[in-house]
Amino acid sequence: MINSIEKLIRDLPVAISIVDAKLNLINYSDQWINSFAPKKTDIRGKHLNDILLDMPISFEEAIQSALKGNISLNEGEKIFLPKGEVKWLKWKISPYKNNDDTLEGLTIIIEDVSKDKKELELLHKAENVGRIGGWQINLETNQSYWTKTTRDIHEVDEDFIPSIEKGIHFVKENFREKVTNLITLALENHQPWDTQLIITTAKGNEVWVRAKGEVEILNNKCVGLIGTFQDITPQKLIELQFKKAKATILTEFNNSINGMAMLDERSKFIKVNKRLCQSLGYTAKEFMQMSFLDISYTENKAKEVTNFKDVFSGKINSPFKEKTCIHKSGNLIYGMLSQSLVKNIDGESSYLICTFQDLTTEKNVQIELSHFTESIQKIFKHSEIGMAFVTLNKGWKEVNHKFCDILGYSKEELLELNYSDITHTEDIGAELLFLKEIIDNKSESYRLEKRFIHKKGHVIYTIFTTTVVRKSDGEILHFIDQIIDITLKIEKEKELGTLVDITKNQNNSLMNFAQIVSHNLRSNSSNMTMLSNFLVEEEDEQEKSNIIDMISKSAESLSQTIDDLNDVVQLKTITLENLQSVSLAKTINQIQKSINGLLIEKKAILEIDIPKDHAVKAVSAYLESIFLNIVTNALKYSSEDRTPVIKINSQLQGDNILLSFSDNGQGIDLKRHGDKVFGLYKTFHQNKEAKGIGLFISKNQIQAMMGSIRIESIVDQGTTLYLTLVKG
């Protein structure tokens, strides 16, 4: 936009220049440089007095008057140059202002009218080129006169007969009252006027004009009005476009979704937007007392200073790069930084515009996922179950040592083979049906009894489990395959179902242990921290005693959690025979101790209806982890419009117990997400803490304990989870 404005000014057929408030040239037409600086190819940024030499005092006075906000029009003045040359110059100097009515600079038009013989011709030419027309009204005869240029500006015919009423009719409606008042003041107080307004021509075009007028006095009596109309549309459009561009840039700066700042050569903040204040915790006023280096996290300040100076001087470019900043609280804020150097019209560095995209949340999630992935890799490497990462076309990406041991191949040999090379021919077709359901997005895993061909040629019977891992868009990334060698037990028909469950439970154990440790211990730790904060802030001794009691119970809960986790570590496989009878009431009481601080903070209500004699076959740590996940989810996704109420019930159903957890929270749109609720990395609310792991892990834990889980939910009404577990 700025380049097009500059071209428009340069192409104007008048000697026009635009200077700032310090009289430094901002822009000019080609006519201007040809007339006053023919040997200078570029005079932008130069002072006006360095270009216009030997100008009369009246010109300097006109400049000073214009700097005070006045418009100066000189119809011609004789100038004697040092070598005896004589010139007649006329000029027009107009101030232009910002939106806040402060002076931004001047627009200067200078015309050379030196040749006496062509004075009249040049006068008419100047009138046409400058689009300045004259007008006169005789108040005695009520007759009006418009020059040709005035008629041209109004786009009327040559035989048009003007009058005051017709002239005002051309003025755009919202300017008419202003014009009427100016004429009235002129007639009453002999006050001249000089204003800018829009007229609508006879052809319906809108034109910006500068209207100037004054009264004619004869024998102390107003006998007429005289003035000029100047078409200032090009100049006005430039001015309006410049203001619009400036306002647009400022709006984009202030409302950017990323943090933005302007920095001077010392890296001091000149201006910051709201988003940067939100990201780093400082107010705009506080930023103005700081430098960019004050918020930069770096181990080498000297290198940071040198890098900034090089960017500001233009020695190096600064594309997007990772940047760590320091929040007002002292926390680290991660993001992407770009720096754009802005130069003035002389090509000198003026300031830097810095853009900072806050990626702290994404970075923290990435770190957590990295830790999770590292844990999975360790489990994969050291697992006593055969495990492999497999591509969509059933080629191996990675296998662990147990997988190689079961099939008798080395890792290098397996990676050269395809699944079909070592799968019993009678089992290939059945597996393809299961695989098709996963590809069609109808299933996330399958489990079956599968036969492999050992390297030595004999058949290996296995419990085979495949779980698909998808990208966020649903595209298949790879499969996680697990095998357990059941060759020696295949004859035992009764144990077949148990062995299938062993595979599933072993899979769940491997995938869940890291999450249980993180979730259970974090819940207890967060609870104790919250209660400790309550204790510090509480003044009432009785309440302090209650909080101390809750901290004590929370500590007991933490100790019990650690004991339960130790049991999980010792547990190699999960079958009905080695599951323990766990009291539901005691488990609920245990998690209530773990999160009583959160319950207090949320002002939540727990309604528990579980008979004391109800127990289920379970791994205590699994059961506690499941209950914790469900209850904390109910609190995390509670509605801001009502008090959280969580109802927990249990009832006998033959050899099973049915548990229900109901809340009145935000709910889930099951029509959209019903098939993904228990999927890995699936989230359904805009909660930055959501990882999409909890329900996936809980379902695996429940299935590992021979149970099942289902969900009912209505958006903005609440959610109910139903758990079916074997009676203890």
What does this 3D model show about the protein?
The chain has 728 residues and is of the alpha+beta class. It is 41% helix and 28% strand. It is built from 24 helices and 27 strands. The strands form six sheets. The chain has a five-stranded antiparallel beta sheet. The protein has a five-stranded antiparallel beta sheet with strand order 7-6-10-9-8, with helices on both faces. Strand 4 and strand 5 (103-112) form a beta hairpin. Helix 1 (2-10) packs antiparallel against helix 9 (233-255). The chain is elongated and about 130 Å long. The two termini are 77 Å apart. Mean pLDDT is 81; it is low at 567-573.
How much is the radius of gyration in Å?
42 Å
Q: Find the count of extended strands (DSSP E, 2+ residues).
A: 27
Sheet with most strands: strand arrangement: 2-1-5-4-3
Q: Describe the largest sheet.
A: 5 strands, antiparallel
Tell me the number of helical segments per DSSP (H or I, 4 or more residues long): 24
- Structural class of the helices, strands and pairings? alpha+beta
- What shape does the CA trace take? elongated
Question: Distance between the terminal alpha carbons, to the nearest Å?
Answer: 77 Å
Helix % is: 40-55%
Instruction: Point out poorly predicted stretches.
Output: 567-573
Q: What percent of residues are in strands?
A: 25-35%
Mean pLDDT: 81
